[in-house]
Amino acid sequence: MNSSFILQKRRRWETIQVFVFPLVFFLILWRLKAYEASVAERAKKAEQKATMEMDSDEARPVFMVPDPQFRAVKNDDLAFMDFPAPSCRADGSCPTIILVSGNDQTFAQRVAEKFFPNSSSMQEPIMGTSLYRNRRYSIQSDKCPVKKTVRPKNMEEGNITTECVQVLSLLRKNKAEINDVLFKGFVKSNKDGKINEIMTAFDLGDSSSKSFKVNIWFNETMKTSLSKYEEPSVPPARSLRESLAQSQSLVSNAYIKSLLGDTADIILDFLGEMPQNNDMAFAGMASDWLERILSEVSPIMFWLMFLQLLPIKLKTVVYDKQQRLRIMMKMHGLGDAAYWAISYLYALLISTIYIALVVVCCINLEISTVSKNSRVIVVGFFFIFVNMQISMAFLFSVFFSEVKTVTVVLNTLLVMAAALNLTLVTAMITQQQTPAKWIFFLDLNPWFSFFHGLMVLKEFGEAAMKQGTQGMTLYNFTQSNSGVRGVCTIMLVEWLIFLILAVYLDQVVPSGSGVKKPPLFFLRSATKRGHPEIADFLKSEESKVQNIEIGKDDVAREKETVEHLLRDPQNLKCSAICYNLKKVYPGEDGNPPTLAVKGLSLAFNTGECFGMLGPSGSGKTSFINVMTGLTEPTSGDAYVAGLDLHTQMDEIYNNMGICPQHDLLWDILTGREHLLFYGRLKNLKGKILDDAVEEALKSVKLFDKGVPDKFAGQYSGGMKRRLSVAISLIGNPKIVYLDEPSTGLDPASRITLWGVIKEAKKNRGIVLTTHSMEEAEHLCDRIGIFVDGSLECLGSPEQLKGRYGDTFVFSMTSEPSHDTDVFDFVKQFCPNAERVYHISGTQKFELPKMDIKLSDVFRVVKQAKQMFPIQAWGVSDTSLEDVFIKVATEAQAASLD
């Protein structure tokens, strides 16, 4: 389990991918809900404020009164005698100006006199405000007392003071003259920094006692010059609205008074918006929108959340198969049951954390699908589905051997299933007329059944939220028409079916766990009855094997030694023993059975390196697969450290190490972590494990600074090979199988590795397979040459060369025109010589050692140089390679006969 945690930690992006999707989804929902709440809060405050303004003078419309330093006075552009002198700006006593014009000047003057009350009037004062300071004004038609502050009724508010200001209503000829005054007083003068602001202006045009027509100019200074002054005390939009409203009210009221007298009055007492403002309307829209998202999207989002766990689980198992890491773990003692149990428990742990995250977020966000239904039902529903999904991932992994393929296929299936859920499945579930058997047929698909359950939980949750009641309870769950109970029952059954099928197919379908087993492997008697031709085949082959063994004295002696060891309790001193071991593969597609290992009897001694040589297909791999427990022997016996291969394989794993031909390593684990993992498989713990790892790293020269803690993916080819050898040696195994350990290494790395193997064989037996005769001669104490599943010869390299090396190899190179001369010359001094090679002037001969001496060869070559030109020549003793070729060739020729 600890190694699984390390692997998952290294695959951090896959882990992040699992949790990012739900976290992002819930974060978006949280922000939407927070925004909805803030909008609703603003709407509530706006409603409260509008209600309060109904009883407040603050809501009364006011004029925008220019500040004293900006009020219109005489200057070069405004040389009107009725404008105040500029000196009034010094003490802030300048009045504010209103311009009035009309075709009937007398009528216009009479209306203007009714605009504002004087100081002695009992009328309510007309109010104004300054845009740029906290200041209010009481506007009157006569001159204000110097430094007199007026506080009208209901106009005191905090630090805001109310001052008196005089207004001058000045008559102009027409609206063109008003436009000229306004332009010169503000726009033109503004360029020189001498602003002359007019409070407001009216043109009555053709107005008379029978008709009322008016044009109004209102002060819009805040829109054009706001950036030049301090922050406004009131919002500009509100100030403009109120100033225009007060101007309209002022001229309308003055018109009425000019006709009906001062007792007539039109009062615009309040100016405000409706209580239902934009914030409240948008709050309602946001709430409806969010509710619609949760109602329509939540089932498919939950579906996608949990379905994204499937590719992560599936790719992890397929990756182990693709990289053949599972075989490596199995050969070091991790059985199929333990592998599936660890993988299942770890996947379940991740899924359980995932369920807890989803449920907690849904409860806090008040998502009705989860928060309004019984927690027991919701969590149980999710828990059943994730268990069923783990089993489904294991089942899918049987049919895939590459991660890329499974990713493409699975993503395609998920997209298709999501589209069907949103269209066909949703329509069939929501329609009352859909027959129950059709729904049941849909629910047989685990992805559709999960979506069906989510739809039902959503409906119960929404109903509970609208009605203020409880959603699905345990009582509702037990009802036959609830839908969720039926879905849970189907997923429970599929959970068990998928798990059983995954374990079964993993054994009978070629996978990453070794050679496939027969379909009825779980019934041993049935398995044996399933291949009756094997027994007949063995009987027919028995006599052939015995005939082949005739004349192989060394092989016969080895068999006698094995028989003696099996009778002697001292056989425990041997690392491994096999006696009459046979392996037959059943025939397929009409082909006969294949005898891969033909009654092999061997004893592997402690402190010995045994070399297995042979051409491809000679049975070396089949023999190692039997001895390492990947396949069962058809017949015969084998013992490792005194443990029976048939009955004590689990214990044998703890006494066995293997270095496969190709490096089976995790790129995302360090060298130290590899050794820790395989050391735990050998039941090493605590300080013993740490010491064994350190010793293994030192033995293969991987203990330099930083090297043990580098990822294996960053190792060179030689470092990976040495790490594979170190893995095979961890735990001090009694027997170690090294399958071509130096393949692909440079000469320096090969020599280093040879030194490691020589040191390692001192206290254990080593079985070495190689195609390098140099390596076999350098490392092996004994060598066995295999051909067609049988052992052809056995002995030390010196013994084999002495037994089969009864010739010298003589080679000579000359001009092609002298090929005949060379041949005749060799035959003349050695009649029994055999030419074994001839091409482009180069010829090679085998000279029997009994017929010639080396001194004779040198003498005759000297003579030959006088007869014809010789470019090159050589003579050598028989090498191990020559022995291998000779034995293999003769054995294959004999088998064909």
TrEMBL record:
<feature type="transmembrane region" description="Helical">
    <location>
        <begin position="436"/>
        <end position="457"/>
    </location>
</feature>
<dbReference type="GO" id="GO:0016887">
    <property type="term" value="F:ATP hydrolysis activity"/>
</dbReference>
<dbReference type="InterPro" id="IPR017871">
    <property type="entry name" value="ABC_transporter-like_CS"/>
</dbReference>
<dbReference type="Pfam" id="PF24526">
    <property type="entry name" value="ABCA12_C"/>
</dbReference>
<dbReference type="Pfam" id="PF00005">
    <property type="entry name" value="ABC_tran"/>
</dbReference>
<protein>
    <submittedName>
        <fullName>ATP-binding cassette</fullName>
    </submittedName>
</protein>
<keyword id="KW-1133">Transmembrane helix</keyword>
<dbReference type="GO" id="GO:0140359">
    <property type="term" value="F:ABC-type transporter activity"/>
</dbReference>
<feature type="domain" description="ABC transporter">
    <location>
        <begin position="579"/>
        <end position="813"/>
    </location>
</feature>
<keyword id="KW-0813">Transport</keyword>
<dbReference type="GO" id="GO:0016020">
    <property type="term" value="C:membrane"/>
</dbReference>
<dbReference type="Pfam" id="PF12698">
    <property type="entry name" value="ABC2_membrane_3"/>
</dbReference>
<feature type="transmembrane region" description="Helical">
    <location>
        <begin position="408"/>
        <end position="430"/>
    </location>
</feature>
<feature type="transmembrane region" description="Helical">
    <location>
        <begin position="339"/>
        <end position="365"/>
    </location>
</feature>
<keyword id="KW-0812">Transmembrane</keyword>
<feature type="transmembrane region" description="Helical">
    <location>
        <begin position="377"/>
        <end position="401"/>
    </location>
</feature>
<keyword id="KW-0067">ATP-binding</keyword>
<dbReference type="GO" id="GO:0005319">
    <property type="term" value="F:lipid transporter activity"/>
</dbReference>
<feature type="transmembrane region" description="Helical">
    <location>
        <begin position="300"/>
        <end position="318"/>
    </location>
</feature>
<dbReference type="InterPro" id="IPR003593">
    <property type="entry name" value="AAA+_ATPase"/>
</dbReference>
<dbReference type="GO" id="GO:0005524">
    <property type="term" value="F:ATP binding"/>
</dbReference>
<dbReference type="InterPro" id="IPR003439">
    <property type="entry name" value="ABC_transporter-like_ATP-bd"/>
</dbReference>
<feature type="transmembrane region" description="Helical">
    <location>
        <begin position="484"/>
        <end position="505"/>
    </location>
</feature>
<dbReference type="InterPro" id="IPR027417">
    <property type="entry name" value="P-loop_NTPase"/>
</dbReference>
<dbReference type="InterPro" id="IPR013525">
    <property type="entry name" value="ABC2_TM"/>
</dbReference>
<keyword id="KW-0472">Membrane</keyword>
<comment type="similarity">
    <text>Belongs to the ABC transporter superfamily. ABCA family. CPR flippase (TC 3.A.1.211) subfamily.</text>
</comment>
<keyword id="KW-0547">Nucleotide-binding</keyword>
<dbReference type="InterPro" id="IPR026082">
    <property type="entry name" value="ABCA"/>
</dbReference>
